[in-house]
Amino acid sequence: MIRPLKYRRMRSIEETCSALMVLGPSARVLAGGTDLIVSLRGAEPKEDVILLDIGTIPGLGEIREEERALVIGSLASFAQIALSPLVRQLASPLAGAAARMGNPQVRNRATIGGNICNASPCADSVPALIALDARLHFVSTEGEHLLPVEETIDGPYSTTVPHDALLTDIVIPKLPAGALTSYVRLARRQAAAKARMAVAVVLVPDEKGNLVDVRIGCGSVTPRPHRMRKAEGRLLGSVPTDERLAASATDVAAEMIQETGIRWSTEYKEPAVKALTRRALREALGWD
Amino acid sequence: MKDFKVVGKKVRRVDALGKVTGQARYAADLADPHMLYGAVLRASLSHARVVSIDVSQAVSFPGVEAVLTAADVPGRNRFGTMIPNQRVLADDKVRFRGDGLAVVAARSAREAARALSGIRVQLEPLSAVFSPEEAMKRGAPGIHGKSNIFVHHKVRKGRIADGFRRADVILRRTYTTALIEHAYLEPEAVMARPDGEGGVLVEGCVQNMYTTRRGLSTVLRLPLAKIRVVQTTVGGSFGGKDEVMTVLAARAAMLALRTGRPVQMVNSREESFHESYKRHPYVMEYRIGAKKNGRLTALEVRMVANAGAYATTTPFVVWRSVVQCAGPYVVPHVKADAYGVYTNTVYTGAMRGFGSPQGNFGIELLMDELAGELGMDPLDLRILNGIRTGSRTATGQKLDQPVAFIETLERSARSINWKRRREELDGQPRNARRRKGIGMAASYRGCALGAEGTDAAGAVVSVQTDGSVIVWSGIAEVGQGYYTVIAQITAEVLGVNLADVTVLPYDTAIMSDSGPSVASRSTMLGGTATRRAAGRVRRKMLAEARLILRTKAKSMDLERGWVVSSGGQRRMRIRDLAAACFERGVALFEFGWYKGPDIHWDEQRGRGSPYFTYVYGTNMAEVEVDQETGEVRVLQFVSAHDVGRVVNPQGVLGQIYGGVAMGLGYGLLEEVEEREGRLVTENFDEYLIPTSLDMPQMKAVMVENPDRHGPYGAKSVGEPTTEIAAPAVVNAICHATGQRVRDLPANLERVLLGKKLVRT
Question: Which of A4, A189, A264 sits opposite B688 (nearest CB)?
């Protein structure tokens, strides 16, 4: 049974921010609702919940190309992102992640903004956004901010976003010419399954084949999603070889264990994340 | 044999339209302007003495019309078939966390849920036991009585010591299976209405109406005739809507009789997970002996089933496991023991397969391991030892009906090109990242209830004055396609179109007690009863037709809506004949009853002829295993089954496809996780069943092997299709990786590491 709720339909970003400010923590932003509505089932609430539906704010779901970036409105659905020729062209790992998230019904409803702000460790868009060095555009009563994803999600289901801020756009800088990308995902079944782990990769080689930029983002690997800098450093400035890829993958596994400690699942996740990372790197290089 | 007009033809399910258009009415769709909503307060401990339950505050909550506890049960608060120890509401003790303590009826669902917080319960914790191994130990906390071992069935054949003495190779292995959920789409729902005369009408997604009615009669202290159970459309059951529905129906009926108003109770998915029974997890220890040439000499088996908190059908489930423990193979010496054990976990009971998926998993993995040990192809080992017409089973029964087992093996092998494919795949590099494998599993299965109880069922066929036909059956449609089968049989016998036949819902007020809709018995028992009822009507119609047409011709027939003479000449429309019968005072309303042949089981000696006939099947699977992550893709699957006679090919295909899907879920994904009696898996976000994208290319092979007992020779198909998919796919995984997986499910961790990782 869904708890009794109050519901308000928002007409603008400004109205939403001020409502968030005035109502405090009892106000929750409703976009696609695929996480929020589920969380509202069950026991009676401790306090009233007021849903602020931003679904009808005009323009929030647009995907557009700017001179130096791809800009995705926070209300863009996963289906929209998966099918967008712009996203496929300019942010291929994100299109891949979007296409494999949930099932068609969920992809039709779920929004990228909701996926980021819910901050689940297995959020499908996040590893891709990390690898793409995406910036998040927030509007609050005090103004506007542009924050990297890494500085926004600070732990499982936890963000640094001020309560009155609304995520409006995801800004993905255009990749340099010749950039190579990939996204690999492991799940327990082929559809409607949370990602057990995911790895997104962006590699930029120079004309000699030396990698001048390496970015690795992982899902369900570290409590706070971030680029795997040590693993990236292993590849930076040199021509990739299979040995180097393997070493980089080992670094990712080591970084995971360093941050999470040895958990019940480590025995599985350590070899699996190594394999996935190596695979993602090989795939980006077109070796597989 | 004459050509069939409707039987054996592809037909659309008679209940398809309502389901696909959303018009079918499920119990949760029922409404009444005066109805109340029921809610249940469930236990917060796994094992505890109930000290007190105080409802005095809850009754004054807004909207509340009644709050009842075990003290309000009008009759005996114990129901069940063999060992009636299940409670409608906990009285002396709480035995698992799904136990209900009190029920509320209120004017809205929300008010009912709120009132639960006003019930004060005092429980005194008792030490609890969660694993059967612990529960079997001397001094373990007793859950019902002193000992938690409440079932022991055995099979004995030959002299086990002799068998092992003759063996060149002896293997010992242990296999385990998981606790799994039926995962029907529709959670349990029921509406109970007082009939104003002290009786009650219950409508709901009940699988076994007569069983539920018996339970209600005990609990409500009402004669059976005062309780009417009518089935609503069932959104899946798979054996799962028996005892849990009796509990729900009894609670709703108690509230309805107390308040004098209709009461609806609908479980949420989480409630369904917590309260509904599951498939028994088994621990199975085997010792098998064989000659160097592969001939089996001896088999020793010990199975332990975790029954959870109540007995329910465990005695029968465990019995089927032990009877079929040797699989479809001739073994001269067999010693098998199977136990059912209480624990303080969710109770387990009937689920599609009913004790066979566990045993088949064990014996079929064992056969593959034995083949490996002997250096034999697993197919050759099975062909060598496979049962044939005239073979004796593990229980000593001589199979005097035609046995089509080898045919299912050979046709599957041909379909997947077993020998060549296996050789090709053996040639793959051992350490390839992705490696393919091919595996198989086989079974034989006793049709219908066997020695569990009297196997008989009834049906009524009634031809209306316009020639349209109504059929009532004592066996339920639970999704298996049974109503379509009996409509086809009726149309075949009466020479009418399928569209002229309507099967009306199952209603205990109309039909004699036909036993439960289980054990893949619907078509054999109910189908034969229907054929008999229709046959009686047909004979009456033909007799009248002869009088009307003034002919003595014996060879008249009913065909395509007409009375036809032996030359095929159309003499009279069936609808005119039906009208004429009415005018002549002849009722075209007949009852058919069919009791299955006698069987024999000697429980003391552990031998006998437990079933009157059997079906045989083989499954083969090809998989691709990611050796770095443990991911498994099932690439192709062949499912061959002796079904006796195909009545509706679409129905058989549906059973095979669905059975394979369920079996693959069992093999690869499904497990209800519990921690100290607390369910961790309580919805479909964590409990994963296969999606359409997980399903392989499937090839269904229908082997027709008509049986003298079934209608037109038809036997069973519902359960056999799901009981060997898991061992086939696990054997394929093992072929791919060269590592044995001996426990279910073969998920990512098990396939990669060979073991389960336990969440802490």
Answer: A189
Q: pLDDT band for B77, please (50, 70, 90 cuts).
A: very high
- CB of A5 within 8 Å of a chain B CB? The answer is no
Domains: count for chain A: 3
Instruction: Please indicate if any CB of chain B lies within 8 Å of the CB of A188.
Output: yes
Instruction: Say whether pLDDT at A44 is over 70.
Output: no
What is the SS3 string spanning B550-565?
A: CCCCCCCEEECCEEEC
Q: What is the mean pLDDT of residues A229-246?
A: 98
Whether A264 has its CB under 8 Å from any CB of chain B: the answer is yes
Gap between the terminal Cα atoms of chain B: 64
Q: What is the mean pLDDT of chain B?
A: 97
CA distances to A77, A109, A124, A201, B677 from A112, rounded to whole Å, are 6, 10, 9, 19, 38
Asked if the model's pLDDT at residue B48 lies above 70, the reply is yes
Q: Which chain B residue has the Cα nearest residue A38?
A: B685
- Reported in sequence order, the residue ranges of B411-511 that DSSP labels E, i.e. its strands, are 434-446, 456-463, 469-473, 501-503
Its pTM stands at 0.96
> Where along chain B do its domains lie?
16-23+456-595, 31-126+188-266, 282-450+602-753
Q: What is the pLDDT of residue B652?
A: 97
Residue-wise pLDDT for B10-35, tens only, equals 999 999 999 999 999 999 999 999 99
Contact status of A191 with chain B (Cβ, < 8 Å):
yes
Are A166 and A71 found together in one domain?
yes
Min Cα–Cα distance to chain B from A264, Å = 6
* Average of per-residue pLDDT across A247-264: 96
A264 vs B270, B693, B760: nearest CB: B760
Contact A191 B693 (CB under 8 A): yes
Is residue A98 in some structural domain?
yes
